[in-house]
Every structure is written in C-alpha cells, then in structure tokens.
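Let us work through a complete example step by step.
Step 1: write down the sequence.
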Amino acid sequence: MVCRVCARWRLCEVQGLTVSTGVVRGMNRCALGLLVGLVSLSVAACQTSTGDEGLGNGTQGSAEAAVPAFVAEEGLTPRERLRKAISLLEQGEAEHARVELEAYKLAVSKSRVADHLLWQIDADPLAHFGKTNFDYTLKPGDSLSIVARDYLGDRLSFYILARYNGLDKPGQVKVGQTIKVPGVQPSAALAPPKSEPTAAPTKEEEAEKASPESAAKQAVPPPAVNPSGDSAVIAETAAASAERIQEKRLSDLYTDADRLTAAGRYADAINVLEEGLLEFSEDPKIKRIAALNYASYADQLKASGQVREAQGALRRAVFLAPADQTVAQKLRKLDRAMAAEQSYRAGIDALAEGRQVDAYTAFTKTLQLEPEHQDAKRRLVSLTPDIAQTFHRDALLAYQKQELDKAIAIWDRVLEIDPNYNPASVGRAKALELKERLRTLKSSE
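Step 2: predict the structure and record it as tokens.
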C-alpha cells in the first residue's frame, strides 16, 4: 500500500493531529517551522509501494525500504519552494520533493501544481496510461517536459512520464535517447512541431523558467490514455487536445487572478500567476498582471511595516515588467528610503556609543537620501551646537600649530553646519590674516 500520510492540510492520522487552513495561515514563523518538521518526519516514516516489472517501473517501483528523513528548507518564498520541488523531481529526489511540496501547500491556500506533482509521485504510471505506446527519439532542445507537453498536453507530467519509462532522473535524458510515449503515435501531419535547437539558456533564464515550466491541470488525475477504435481519429484527438488544454488553463488562470486581484488578495493572486508562469513563461499578459499584483502587494507590505519584503516584491515586479517605468520608479524610491533608514539607524547607534561626529555624518546622509526624514532633521538640530563646538576646538588646535590651511578648512565646515557660529567666523578671519602676513614676510626675505 502507498502511504498517504501528510496529504493536504493534515499530518499523519496515526499522530492524531489535524490542522485547518485557517490555523496554518495564522501560525507564526516558528510554529510553521515546527509543523513543517513534523510533516517531514511523517513522510520519512512512509514506505513506497512496489510497481510492475519493466514498463512503468520507475523510481517508485523499487523494493520497500525506509525513506531518509528530509526537512523543508527554511526561508524560501512559495515561488522558490515550488521551483526547488520541481528541480528535486528532475533529479529523482521524490521524497525530498514531497516534503517541499507539502510545505508549499501550507503557505498557499490552493495549488493545482502541487497536487498534480504529489499525485505523480504516488500514482501507478502503467495503470494510468496503459501499455499502448510508441517510440520517440529525443531531438536537440527536447526534454521530458517538452514531450509531455506535446503528447500528453501537460508539461508537468514529465515525472510520471519518466516513471512510465523507468527513468530515475527525468532531468538527465540525452539527445538520441529513445523513450516510450503513452498512446497512439499521431500521423506526421498531426504530430506536434518538434523543438528546434536553441542556445544554452542563461542562469537568469533558467531561474525564470525553472524547467519543466508548467502549471498542473486539475488536482484530480487526468484520464488514462487507453486508446481504442480508429487509431487515426485517436491520434487526431490527442494532437488537438494539448492545445485545448492549454487554452482552457490560460482562461482559468486569468479568471482566478482577476477575482483575487479585485478582492485585494494580491499575495494569493501572485501565487496563481507564478504557477501560471511555470507553464506560460513567455505570455506577456501574465507577466504584466503579475507585475501589477507585485506592485500592489508591495504597497500592502510597506503599509504594514514590512519594508524589506516590499522591496523584494517590487524587484520581482521590475523583473517581470522592465518597461514599466511606474513600477521602476516605485522601486527606486523605496531603495532610497531603505538606504536612508539604514543610515539613520547607523546614526542612532553612533550616538549611543558617544560618537557624535559619526552620528552627525550619518544623519546628514539620511537627509541627502530622504530630505523629508523628520527624525533625522530633529537629531541634526540637537547635535549641531555640540558638533560645531567640537570642530571649532579642532580648528583652534590646528591654528596653534600654525597648520593654517587645515584650520581654515575646519572652520569652513563649522560654518556649513552652523552659519551663525561666531567663534568660527572670528577664528577663520584670524587664520586668513596670519596666513597673509606669513606670505608677505616670506616674499620680502
């Protein structure tokens, strides 16, 4: 039997624990971390089921054995966690991916992607697809996700396709390798276009697309491929179904995102759109809608005091819509505000340690970055008399040593700080007079 512990919003029933969606959303970071750890331990206690020999006997078809304990990585955003889970599945790390997917579901109220990926880990590929299949030789630019998209209508079905072929690591297939694709082979006229060789993607493109890029279909398993009747009709239906699935998925995605955006649930809309970007990575409308939601979410975060999180949201918005100058300007403004706040905090720390000059410098920098920073203004006003006096003493010391240029420069700075500080004006005048006298004496010798 396949262990079903930790599925959806609960821990293993053996532990007698139940967690509702509302409770999960109300947890603080520490409590959520504890829950993720418990989920991980529950998964580690599971044992895999045996599969059929040969076809469909993938990584989940090995003999029953204890699964190593995995813990979900801390500090990941939902988007980062989902992409990590997909990467783990590509590497054949199914149980590790399961833990990350369960942690992802704790953070996201509803995810067809996570449900579909979890289903693929446990499903019997031979029972799902049947034994009818055809050979396909991988071309340059192909991957299991591309084959799954073209012939199964869903990029994310790369994992169950790998298991159908008994492949341990879906991400390590090679050009020229022959795999079996479930169903009847479409005729040449109806077969989907093959991918052309492409240049190696940049690291930024890989991070954005995180192949396989896709969104899942419904959480329930897709119908099994079990061809019967006229093969030409079946092939034509299979060739056309992928496009219909993509169109329906895109329409549903727009509808879900619009509904959540209208309700002000920008974080939930972002989760939906980020899952959509896995499948429709080049769709400009999804990118534009996602960027707008990130910008609105940044406003919410900033209003609640989460400035650093708001900065991250705006950076993602700029990445998705680099031509949107409104969003770019928002990010620049927030960057300056954060730098100003950092400088202000440095000034406060300097004051606490008795370093008044450093504090004055930090508060001055704060106002250069954010001229309307009222706290920095007040601090500078209170510091000005003491700073002017400190610099004046330094200037007098330089004057006594007849380091006249240095003394004049320090008095100039004092007068910049406080133009009405009369001792600096007097000292500066005396230094200039002495400097002129010395120059005259030297020239007359």
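Step 3: interpret the result. The chain has three domains: 13-199+207-246, 247-339, 373-444.
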